[in-house]
Specification:
Layout: E1 11-12, H1 18-21, H2 24-34, H3 44-50, E2 53-54, H4 58-62, H5 67-87, E3 92-96, H6 103-107, E4 113-118, H7 120-126, E5 136-140, H8 147-155, E6 162-166, H9 175-188, E7 193-199, H10 201-210, E8 236-242, H11 258-266, E9 274-280
């Protein structure tokens, strides 16, 4: 099945760097997934966006990009964010490096405040498809900037916790930069949390070897999840979802190859190749 081959009269994304253009892979994956009867998530907006962009998405098919992996990751994030919103229905969710994600629409929580942040070039594309509203704010900034912290503080729901998410983003930073991001969030927003994903050092090497955009290599890896607690005495791991963990992967595991399904059972350390972590401070 092909989604989004290059055609004329579409929205240009040529201004995106290769690192920024990686946001197109999860978008394409969700669009493909939405066409399946056994989809792990539905994202009709992703289908519409893919068909509106001037980009040859068949590149990802030719490079055998594993679409199901991106959708499983998004599904795990959705479930963790939904669990948080079940506990705090009027909280604020801040998506760092939001790209062209549609979690605000997928979860459709009527009481939550949503803030979406990404680089100016990315946000310029995003704003062609999504518009701010009373509960949704869009901020153009780098994670390494300072000014957006004040904007989040100003726009967050009062007297409610804040949950930050960072899906597929931290890979492009060095560890000292990531530690700085964590410290700044903990300093500015105490009693909050961040959900992020990471790969083991070995699996990161595999990912870089098969990455279709060779000029945007991944840098950050994480072996022992609880090692992040040594970065700052305030940090603790609330939830850790490893590869194949139930119930987060239950809908998608039958879609994976027999090698991956049985490998998870026969060799439990495979669980640690990929992880989604909910850290709090």
């Amino acid at each position: 099945m092909s989604v989004g081959a290059l055609t004329m009269n579409k929205i240009d994304v040529a201004e995106l760097t290769e690192a920024q253009a990686t946001l197109l892979m999860p978008l394409w994956a969700r669009a493909l997934e939405s066409c399946r009867n056994d989809a792990v998530l539905r994202d009709s907006a992703a289908e519409q966006i893919v068909n509106s962009l001037d980009f040859d998405f068949t590149l990802f098919e030719a490079k055998a990009v594993p679409a199901i992996d991106y959708c499983l990751r998004a599904s795990v994030f959705d479930q963790l964010v939904q669990r948080f919103l079940d506990r705090h229905p009027t909280a604020t969710v801040v998506e760092l490096g939001v790209g062209l994600d549609t979690r605000f629409d997928r979860l459709n929580n009527p009481g939550a405040t949503w803030i979406e942040l990404d680089l100016p070039a990315v946000m310029a594309v995003r704003q062609k498809f999504f518009q701010p509203c009373d509960r949704r704010t869009m901020l153009a900034a780098s994670l390494l900037d300072d000014h957006w912290l004040d904007e989040v503080a100003e726009r967050a729901a009062p007297d409610s916790p804040i949950l930050f998410t960072c899906e597929g983003v931290l890979y492009f930073f060095q560890v000292p930069q990531i530690q700085q991001i964590f410290r700044r969030l903990a300093d500015r927003f105490p009693q909050s949390g961040l959900i992020f994903d990471a790969q083991s050092p070995w699996f990161l090497r595999v990912s870089n070897w098969r990455h279709p955009m060779k000029d945007s290599q991944l840098k950050f890896s994480l072996g022992n999840v609880r090692s992040i607690q040594s970065w700052d005495p305030r940090l603790r791991v609330r939830d850790y979802v490893g590869f194949g963990d139930s119930p987060y992967y239950d809908r998608g595991m039958p879609r994976l190859s027999a090698l991956r399904r049985w490998g998870r059972r026969l060799l439990p350390p495979i669980r640690h190749l990929f992880k989604v972590v909910h850290a709090e401070w």
